[in-house]
Amino acid sequence: MSRVTPSIRPGQASVLHLWEVTVRRGSTTLLDRISWNVDADERWVVLGPNGAGKTTLLQIAAATMHPTSGRAHVLGERLGAVNLADVRPRIGFSSAALATRVPPNEKVRDVVVSAGYGVIGRWRERYDAMDDDRALELLDAFGVAHLADRLYGTLSEGERKRTLAARALMTDPELLLLDEPAAGLDLGGREDLLGRLTRLAADPLSPATILVTHHVEEIPAGFTHVLLVRGGAVVGAGPLGETLTEQSLSKTFGLGLVLEQRDGRYFARAR
Ligand SMILES: Nc1ncnc2c1ncn2[C@@H]1O[C@H](COP(=O)(O)OP(=O)(O)OP(=O)(O)O)[C@@H](O)[C@H]1O
C-alpha cells in the first residue's frame, strides 16, 4: 500500500495532524515518517502487532512525547512550539501505564474526579458538587456507578478499565485516547465495554477518539477510520470499510488472515 499523502497544514477540523513524524531512540526507529490526520468528528482505531509503534504514536497524540523529526500538531498546537502542559488537559487518556499508577487505596469516585486537576490520587484539591456529579454520571455511563465508594485496588481488571475510561472523559476532552481498553477483559466484559464505546462513538458531542488495539474483534461498531501500522510505518489509513481488508490486515500482521465482518464488527483468523 502506498504511503499516505499528507496535507501540509492541519485543516480547520483537525485535532491531530502528523507530517512525516519519526521517533528514534539510539539506532532504533520507533516511528518511521508517519503522516496522519484525525478530524474532530472521527473515531479511529490504531491496529497493529506487538512492537508496531502504537503506544509511541499515542504518546505523540497525548502530547507526552516529541517527534525526533517531522511535525506534529495536537489540537491545533505544534508540539515543540507550545508548552505541552497547556495542551494535555484538553486530552483524555486511558492506558495500562496509567492503570498501574493509580494508588490502590484511592476511592473509585476520586480516581475519576481527580482528572479535573490532572493528578492521580485525590489529595488536597477542592472539588465542587458539580465535579462529583459529573464523575458519578461518567461512572454510570460505563456501568460502574455502584462501585463509586469502593477502593480502586479492590476492583477487577474490567472494572478498572471502565473506571479509567470514565476518568479519561472527566475533563470533557477534545481528544480521547484509549490504549487497549478491552485488553484483559473476559468475553462479557469486552462486549459490555464495546457496547458502551459504540454508544459513545455514535454521540455527536463525543470527542474525536483514537483507540489502540491488537485485535479486530475489539473494534467497536460505529468507529469510522483505521490506521494500520507495522514496524513503525503506516500500512494503510482511511475509512474503516475500505481500508480494513483481508489483504491489508494480512500485510499488517505478516501472515495470511481471513477477515469477516458482521453487524459492524470484525472477526479474523489465520488462513
Ligand atoms: N526507549 C526505547 N529504546 C529502544 N527501543 C524502544 C524504546 N521504546 C520502545 N522501543 C521499541 O519500539 C517499538 C515500538 O514500541 P511500542 O511500545 O510503541 O509498540 P506497540 O505497538 O505499542 O507494542 P505492543 O502492542 O506490544 O504494546 C518496540 O519494538 C519497542 O521495543
Automatic annotation (TrEMBL):
Xref: Pfam families: ABC_tran (PF00005)
One GO MF term: ATP binding
PROSITE patterns found in the cross-reference section: ABC_TRANSPORTER_2
Keyword terms, alphabetized: ATP-binding, Nucleotide-binding
ABC transporter domain residues: 16-256
Protein name: ATP-binding cassette domain-containing protein
Species of origin: Nakamurella alba
Taxonomic lineage from the root: Bacteria, Bacillati, Actinomycetota, Actinomycetes, Nakamurellales
